[in-house]
Amino acid sequence: MAELDAFARRFAARLQAGDVVALRGPLGAGKTTLVRAIVRALHGTDDAVSSPTFVFRHTYPGTPPVEHVDLYRIENAAGELPELGLEDAFAADRIVFVEWPERAEAWLPAERIEVSIDGSGEGPRTVRHQRR
Ligand SMILES: Nc1ncnc2c1ncn2[C@@H]1O[C@H](COP(=O)(O)OP(=O)(O)OP(=O)(O)O)[C@@H](O)[C@H]1O
Ligand SMILES: [Mg+2]
Questions:
Q1: Which of 31, 33, 102, 106 has an alpha carbon 20 to 30 Å from 1's alpha carbon atom?
Q2: Does ligand 1 come within 6 angstroms of the Cβ of 78?
Q3: Does the CB atom of residue 109 touch ligand 1 within 6 A?
Q4: CA-nearest residue, atom 23 of ligand 1
Q5: Is residue 97 helix, strand or coil?
Q6: Is the pLDDT of residue 53 over 80?
Q7: In terms of CATH architecture, what is 2-131?
């Protein structure tokens, strides 16, 4: 996955604390794999600290800290998200990746980076991205 790592380094170089990245793509597209490659590019390692209460949130301590929030299991965003205590993940000192942002479109900050991955299995991936 040399290409993945090369892309992750270029992408990581343009990220800054406070950025929110919405990661789209079907099951198995490589969203989680891309987050980890970007974290390695930023921090040199991808050792995560799992949230003690929520399995869908991983914090990667480093400079800046990176949060990875996976909303796949969210069914009712309006009802569930306020109870999840995710506000501190969206702090100005860190970068947040949101996997399955489709689950909570209205909840996402308007200013964010949109990333969309096409491809599956062992095949090549195409990644589109846009800051908005
Ligand atoms: N760039 C890539 N090149 C080749 N294989 C890849 C690439 N990215 C991911 N994969 C492989 O695809 C599989 C799925 O990756 P991953 O778990 O990151 O997908 P995902 O989009 O997070 O899926 P889910 O929606 O289920 O969470 C893994 O086996 C991974 O090794
Ligand atoms: Mg995933």
A1: 102
A2: no
A3: no
A4: 28
A5: strand
A6: no
A7: 3-Layer(aba) Sandwich (3.40)
Contact 101, 72 (CB under 8 A): no
Q: What pLDDT, in 10s, does the model give residues 63-102?
A: 999 999 999 999 998 888 888 888 889 999 999 999 999 9
Report which bound ligand comes closest to the CA of 23.
1
Inter-residue contact 51 to 59 (CB < 8 Å): yes
Would you kindly state where each structural domain of the chain is located, as residue ranges?
A: 2-131
Q: Which of 21, 33, 116, 117 to mutate to test the pocket of ligand 1 (most atoms within 8 A of CB)?
A: 33
Residues β-bridged to residue 21: 97, 113
Please give the distance, rounded to the nearest whole angstrom, from the Cα atom of residue 111 to the centre of ligand 2: 23
pLDDT score at 52: 66
Predicted pLDDT at 87 = 85
Is the pTM here over 0.90, yes or no?
A: yes
